[in-house]
Amino acid sequence: MLCMTQVPPQETASKPELLTAKEAGEALGGVSDETVNRWARDGRIACITLPSGQRRFRREVIDAILAGNTAA
């Protein structure tokens, strides 16, 4: 029988939570994923672009926007 190693909880906790455009839009109060992607293209919201071209948005950036920190 093979035993798979589990990742310790402290390692997973330090990784940032990444959201899809749809999830980011929902967190921002129902903004469409098209709008979130347009904001990313325009440089209005920071994102990570995957090799596939899809964008991911850090939870802390979304939270900063919700808190009124427009510098995020």
TrEMBL record:
Pfam families: HTH_17
Chain ranges of the Helix-turn-helix domain: 18-69
Gene3D superfamilies documented for this protein: 1.10.1660.10
Top-level taxonomic group: Bacteria
Protein name: DNA binding domain-containing protein, excisionase family
Lineage: Bacteria, Bacillati, Actinomycetota, Actinomycetes, Micromonosporales
